[in-house]
Design goal:
By secondary structure, the protein is of the alpha+beta class. It is built from 6 helices and 7 strands, in the order H-H-H-E-E-H-E-E-E-H-H-E-E. Helix 1 packs across helix 3.
């Protein structure tokens, strides 16, 4: 009887949540509320209050574990999605560099994943709407495909997104040319040289080991739409 009444009480608790009692029915507050209701409900039905409270606790822990499992699955799914998108983008950039005839290459800015960084790390804090800043993507932690692909980008602050409530930025067109920069950082120029070896071009010289010298070569990247960069 105690376990049956615990599930009945859980349903009542969910009703309270939908009525706006989040403060009482969130986290451990929900467990305490459910436990008390289950114990009282069980007692009124002639059952053991302790059994009712125990059933409530078991139900609460099961729900918590299920929520954590779903959250972990969603993180893994998102990581796989980002990795697939990065691989697809790099493959498309490679092909375009080889045979794209130096035509403009379009990238959807909203598909670029900046979840592993934030505006502070990229030095994009305290900006006014319409203000622009140059960003060295190698400032991001670890080796990021966006840094390897684009190096430096110019971001213009658009304000806070209406739906995601995060800072939004447009990105200026950027040359994809493996150029050596005398004032560039060592990591930047080393990565540019390594990228050039992969794409078949030694910096921005005419020396090439792939068909890009005749059918492809440097081009401009046009970023469509706006990118989201987390505030924290």
């Amino acid at each position: 009887m105690g376990f049956i009444t615990s599930f009945a009480s859980t349903g009542i608790s969910h009703g309270l949540e939908s009525a706006g009692a989040e403060a009482l029915t969130s986290g451990w507050g929900s467990a305490v509320l459910n436990g008390g209701m289950c114990a009282a409900f069980s007692y009124m039905q002639g059952g053991d209050p302790l059994m009712g409270a125990a059933g409530s606790l078991i139900s609460y822990l099961a729900n918590q574990n299920y929520a954590k499992m779903k959250a972990a699955q969603e993180r893994i799914r998102r990581q796989q999605e980002v990795a697939l998108h990065n691989a697809k983008m790099m493959a498309e950039l490679y092909l375009h560099y080889q045979i794209g005839g130096k035509q403009m290459f379009n990238v959807n800015a909203w598909e670029l994943d900046f979840s592993g960084t934030n505006i502070a790390e990229l030095k994009l804090t305290n900006m006014r709407v319409g203000e622009s800043r140059d960003v060295n993507l190698f400032d991001m932690k670890g080796i990021d495909p966006k840094a390897l692909a684009f190096g430096h980008l110019r971001f213009t602050y658009l304000g806070i997104g209406r739906f995601n409530h995060q800072p939004m930025f447009s990105i200026a067109n950027n040359p994809f040319d493996f150029d050596y920069q005398e004032k560039g950082t060592i990591p930047r120029n080393v990565a540019t040289f390594a990228g050039g070896l992969i794409f078949g071009r030694f910096f921005n010289t005419p020396i090439s080991i792939t068909p890009n010298l005749f059918f492809g070569g440097p081009f401009n990247v046009h970023f469509k739409g706006a990118a989201t960069i987390p505030a924290h």
